[in-house]
């Protein structure tokens, strides 16, 4: 197995910022302060506020996309299941349903 140095990034996670100098072969790997991994924003400060804001916005958008479905004359339990499936899942897991 080989590491692709052009695609590989490094990040120091902690309270203070440090410069890393990791080399693969003769190539110094780029250090980043944040990146998107499986739909989640990973930052060097392990701050979750931005992640919660992103998930809230996605869930709000899904709610408004499904508002006509929720306005229909259907039972309360059915509406709860729709909310759990289409809106709460986006908030909890950050992925689009």
From TrEMBL:
Source lineage: Eukaryota, Metazoa, Spiralia, Lophotrochozoa, Mollusca
Source taxon at top rank: Eukaryota
Entry keywords, A to Z: Endonuclease, Hydrolase, Nuclease
One GO MF term: endonuclease activity
Protein name (record): Endonuclease-reverse transcriptase
